Amino acid sequence: MLDQDIKKIIYSKEDIAKKTAELGQVLGEKYQGVNPLVVGILKGAVPFMADIVRSMNIPLEMDFMDVSSYGTGTVSSGEVKILKDLDTNVEGRDILIVEDIIDSGQTLKYLVELFKYRKAKSVQIVTLLDKVEGRLVDIKADYVGFNVPNEFVVGYGLDYAEAYRNLPYVGVLKPEIYETANE
Ligand code: PRP
Ligand code: MN
Ligand code: MG
């Protein structure tokens, strides 16, 4: 089973449920009456997006974007390519970007600048996980679930080679999983 590849659980299903309920309540109060556009960043943000909007309990709209960093090397150029754009015009809208994790910050820096360029009225960020040690550019989330140590984590949207996104918790893989992949 998928579970058997996990060395340890960092944030349990219960930890995440409690945190998404707390964040959802705060965000529901913050965005009451403005019909925010909640933007999930594919694919990692899907489970968190689904939980956070159901905790907000206010009228809102949902849309999705898919982006990827240019280049294949380990050192990213910092440039971001749009693979799927929004269907919605953001001009004059209050935007809440939903992410599973902020690492270098390059994805979010690009998106915040893009939405401001497109004349969004406001742009805020909620992320389940913030890996502050990974930061290469200056960007801060407005709402953070957990500050995560500089470890490779999977589950609840986060993948290793596209797998493990459907685990209901966030955990660390057993080292032999990577070792097998390198053979
Ligand atoms: C991951 C993660 C964030 C981004 C964070 O997505 O879901 O979107 O990287 O990294 P950064 O702060 O260094 O930009 P990825 O591009 O792997 O796509 P995925 O969500 O489809 O896994
Ligand atoms: Mn992502
Ligand atoms: Mg990924």
CATH class: Alpha Beta
Roughly how many Å apart are the termini? 22 Å
**Main sheet properties:** 6 strands, mixed
* CATH topology value: Rossmann fold
What is the total domain count?
A: 1
Structural category: alpha/beta
Helix content: 25-40%
Point out poorly predicted stretches: none
**Which ions and ligands are bound to the chains?**
1-O-pyrophosphono-5-O-phosphono-alpha-D-ribofuranose, manganese (II) ion, magnesium ion
Q: What is the overall silhouette?
A: globular
Radius of gyration: 16 Å
Overall pLDDT score: 94
Strand order of the largest sheet: 4-3-2-5-6-7
Order of helices and strands: EHEHEEEHEEEEH
Number of helices: 4
- Assign the CATH architecture: 3-Layer(aba) Sandwich
Number of strands: 9
Can I get a quick summary?
The chain has 183 residues and is α/β, with parallel strands linked by helices. It contains four helices and nine strands; from the N terminus they run E-H-E-H-E-E-E-H-E-E-E-E-H.
Explain this structure to me?
Its cofactor is Mg(2+). One of its GO terms (molecular function) is guanine phosphoribosyltransferase activity. This is Hypoxanthine phosphoribosyltransferase. Keywords: Cytoplasm, Glycosyltransferase, Magnesium, Metal-binding, Nucleotide-binding, Purine salvage, Transferase. The chain is α/β, with parallel strands linked by helices and 183 residues long. The chain has one domain: Rossmann fold (3-Layer(aba) Sandwich). It contains four helices and nine strands; from the N terminus they run βαβαβββαββββα. The strands form two sheets. The chain has a six-stranded mixed beta sheet with strand order 4-3-2-5-6-7. The longest helix has 18 residues, at 13-30. The chain binds 1-O-pyrophosphono-5-O-phosphono-alpha-D-ribofuranose, manganese (II) ion (MN) and magnesium ion. Magnesium ion binds at residues 44, 159.
